[in-house]
Amino acid sequence: MILEPEQRCTVAAPCGPDWVGMIQVGLAVVQLLWYVRLPELTLVSGPVLAVIVAVEEFPLPDTASDAANAAVIAALAFGWAASWQRLALRRRQRRLAEQAAAGVRHPLPKGMGPLRRGIVPIVAGLVLCAVAGAAVDQGLRGIHEDEQRAAKAVSASAVVLGQGEETLRVRTSDGSKRTVDAVFPEDYDTGSVVTLLSDGHWIRLAAEPYDAFGWQLLTLAAGLPGLTFLAAGVLARRRAAALRRAPVPLLRVLQRLDHNGDTWIYAADDTAGRTPLLRCLAYPVIDDEAGELGPPHDDDEDRPIVDTRLREAVLYGPPYDAGELLIVAAQGGVPVVLLTAGPVRLPTGDQRPEPEWPVGGCR
Asked: Given this model, what pLDDT does residue 353 score?
């Protein structure tokens, strides 16, 4: 975008609202977030953005611009391949987990309650997408009204006397001086001749039709997070529903809770807790005998007491990056059922839980 040559507004090529450019900028902004969190979306958005760049930006009368756009397309192709590989690795992780379960499958425990995963992001996404749709409607209405007035307006020439921040000072053919709005006043040199369209008190430059930039900005501000929330909610709901739909693989593991509320999963033979395999946020589904939904609190300190020791647990469902799981673990001799409240993640680098006291053996 920096290398792209700027086009001056003229009557022959007016500077109208650019909806395709809006989509291009929006996808470019959100692409990196989707690469990290929603690679499924980039399998669609990457090719769409590459096609827009190829169709809209080639050829340009500048070798540097063409080289920059070619680099953008190459980067999108690389990102698309990386997303495809990441999703393929997820499928492989799932197959390996199913093989490790050695055919042992079981339905989820009873009393799971209604499926709530994904409801909040889906509702938030729908509301934001509705706001984006309303912004698009208002922008199109403004464009239509401007076209209607321009069709019946009177055309006249004027000489530019000076530029303001977003205005031009002009002198019309009858000698009167007027100030008109200009989105790009720097494009009009002092002494140059411009064409005005007037209809009563309404007047504008013929080279600058109605600019829906404000509505386009609102469309991006609401539409991009709306699509992100909606896609994340739909994917979470589908994965959680698949976990409940049929008997799922069972795996014996070790589980640990850290002071941030995250649950860490280790292999069943990693009794020292050296290598965490998965990290997730999970909440209890079935209350224990004390009726508590969370860890007990110390009366002397305003913070929960968290038992960070390793404990034996059973995983329901194949563990893989961004998957959904159910964990049955023993707390105080009572089995507690934990359901993931977010996608399962693989620990990155040397990421480890940090207990505040030495960890004992496996419990």
From this structure: 78
Cα 303 to Cα 38, 117, 138, 258, 268: the distances in Å are 34, 28, 50, 13, 30
Helix 19-37, helix 213-245: angle, nearest 10? 30
pLDDT of 233 reads 94
Contacts 24+ apart (CB under 8 A), 35-40: 35/79, 35/82, 35/83, 37/228, 37/232, 38/228, 38/231, 38/232, 38/235, 39/82, 39/83, 39/86, 39/87, 40/83, 40/87, 40/231, 40/235
What was the pLDDT predicted at 4? Answer: 64
SS3 letters across the chain:
CCCCCCCCCCCCCCCCCCHHHHHHHHHHHHHHHHHHHCHHHHHHHHHHHHHHHHHHHCCCCCHHHHHHHHHHHHHHHHHHHHHHHHHHHHHHHHHHHHHHCCCCEECCCCCCCCCCCCHHHHHHHHHHHHHHHHHHHHHHHHHHHHHHHHHCCEEEEEEEEEECCCEEEEEECCCCEEEEECCCHHHCCCCCEEEEEEECCEEEECCCCCCCHHHHHHHHHHHHHHHHHHHHHHHHHHHHHHHHHCCEEEEEEEEEECCCCEEEEEECCCCCCCCCCEEEEEEECCCCCCCCCCCCECCCCCCECCCCCCEEEEEECCCCCCCCCEEEEEECCEEEEEEECCCCECCCCCCCCCCCCCCCCCC
The values of phi and psi at residue 21, to 5°, are -65, -35
Cross-strand partners of 284:
338
Distances (CA, A) of 95 to 85, 89, 150: 15, 10, 63
In angstroms, the CA 18 to CA 16 distance is 6
If the chain, 363 residues long, is cut into consecutive pieces of 10 residues, what is the mean pLDDT of each piece? 69 84 91 93 95 85 81 94 95 88 84 84 97 96 92 90 89 86 86 88 89 93 96 93 88 88 89 89 64 44 65 90 88 81 83 60 47
pLDDT value of position 139: 95
Cis peptide, bond prior to residue 59, ω within 30 of zero? yes
